[in-house]
Amino acid sequence: MTSVRKGEPLMARSGTEGRGVLEGAFALMEVLAHGDEIGLTRLAADAELPKATAHRLLGQLVALGAVQSCSGRYRLGPRTFRLGQAWHPARTLRAASARPLRELASTSVRLAVSLSVPEAGHAIVVGSTRSEVDDVFALHPGVVLPPGSAAELILTASAPEAAAPAGWSRAAWSREAARAREQGMAFQYGQCVSALSCVAAPVFSDTGQAVAAVAATALDGKQIAPLGEAVVRTAAMVSANLSRLPAPAARPRRAWEPARGPAAQDPADGEPHAALAPARRT
Question: For tag attachment on the chain, is the N or C end more exposed, with fewer CB atoms within 10 Å?
Answer without folding.
Answer: N
